[in-house]
Amino acid sequence: MRATLEAIALHPVKSTGVRPVQRATVEGWGLRGDRRWMVVDATGECLTAREHHGLFALTADTPDTDPDLPGALRINAPGHPTLDLEVPHADPEPVTVHGRPLTGRDAGAAATSWLRGALGRDDVRLVHVADPRPLNPAHANPGEATAFADGYPVTLASAASLRRLRDWVTETALERGEEPVDVTATRFRPNLLVDGDLEPFEEDAWARVTVGAVTFRVVKPVDRCVMTTIDPTTLASGHEPIRTLAHHRRWDGATWFAVQLVPEVVGEVRVGDEVLPGR
Fold first, then answer.
1. Which pTM does this prediction carry?
2. What is the CATH number of the domain that holds 152?
3. Average pLDDT over the chain, rounded to whole?
4. CA pair distance 234, 218, nearest whole angstrom
5. Is the model more confident about 278 or about 131?
């Protein structure tokens, strides 16, 4: 069996545009520069593209996605000037990710003004992670944590599984007399996309996976929500891929695609690295 790392993606600000990179540094919290910033509402709860599709139209970069950046973060939005920011030093404050508590630091008045103009909302702010959130002890070891990710530090998807899903989506569309939806990996926002001599969905059974010199523990599959039904380019909502996943990949009251990982060592991963799954 031979498999390789096909693509790496970072999401500097949670739920904004995907930023492809050729290499990434793996830290205990996940890939460096991934989901270290987040948009919150007036209650301190994260705002995602599920609630506000316009977040997908924002692109954010850090030195991990653009080494020539002058600061810690650059955000762009159509029709708005570029915003450059440094890591804030405000006092930590409570914030939540889908109700799970951790702490963040407010990015300041300029970031608030820019973000409210870009999103057309007067109740949002930008925060940077202050302290990591401990992982669910049912699936984690003491000391393991993440930043603003929904569940665990890193997500991995298989191109073989994606191809099988696309076939299923096409079959569903033809049965219903609909135009097939082009389901891309971007819908699922994985950090790591692997391809090669793999069976569809075999990653569900992996216990560990080594990418280059970095080994990850596979925690569980990723349960999927309606955010995957938003076209990341047009921002239009539809039924796929959740409709088809619910038919083929539904158990425990949820639909599943890709897997959650926890790094066991730190290091660097690069596109083209060898991928070695283990049970």
1. 0.96
2. 2.40.33.20
3. 96
4. 33
5. 131
Average pLDDT over residues 114-135: 96
Question: What is the predicted pLDDT for the residue at 279?
Answer: 67
Written in H, E and C, the secondary structure of the chain is CCEEEEEEEECCECCCCCEEECEEEEECCEECCCCCEEEECCCCEECCCCCCHHHHHCEEECCCCCCCCCCCEEEECCCCCCEEECCCCCCCEEEEECCEEEEEEECCHHHHHHHHHHHCCCCCEEEEEEECEECCCCCCCCCCEECCCCCCCEEEEEHHHHHHHHHHHHHHHHHHCCCCCCCCHHHCCCCEEEEECCCCCHHHHCCEEEECCEEEEEEEEEEECHHHHECCCCCCECCCCHHHHHHHCEECCEEEEEEEEEECCCEEEECCCEEEEEC
CA dist., res. 136 & res. 139, Å (int): 6
Chain segment 71-95, per-residue pLDDT in tens = 999 999 999 999 999 999 999 999 9
Residue 165 in tokens: 């899903």
Q: Per-residue confidence at 41, pLDDT binned at 50, 70, 90?
A: very high
d(CA 221, CA 152): 11
CA–CA gap between residue 30 and residue 16 (Å, rounded):
17
Beta pairing partners, 19: 10
Number of domains in the chain: 1
Range of the domain at 169: 3-278
